[in-house]
Specification:
mainly alpha, rod-shaped
Length: about 80
């Protein structure tokens, strides 16, 4: 394989990773929007303690999902974290 083909192959792999990362970022964005809506609901102040606890549990769950998605989507094929 010559240098051009090798470079092309490497760039195609990078493009696929970027597309994958963008899909994950879109999912993260949706989860962050859900979190925002929950916090807005909580700020209204007319919820019971049980409802507030349920919102808190959901927010923590969403935050965990966001961190996991972000961490996983930063990995390349070798398992290294990309900055």
């Amino acid at each position: 394989m010559d240098e051009r083909e090798e470079l092309k192959k490497e760039l195609e792999k990078e493009l696929q990773w970027i597309k994958y990362r963008q899909r994950i970022l879109n999912i993260i964005d949706q989860k962050l929007l859900q979190m925002r809506l929950l916090t807005e609901k909580a700020k209204q102040g007319n919820l019971t303690i049980g409802e507030m606890e349920a919102i808190n549990v959901r927010l923590n769950d969403l935050a965990t999902q966001v961190r996991a998605l972000d961490s996983e989507s930063r990995k390349n094929e070798g398992g290294k974290i990309l900055e």
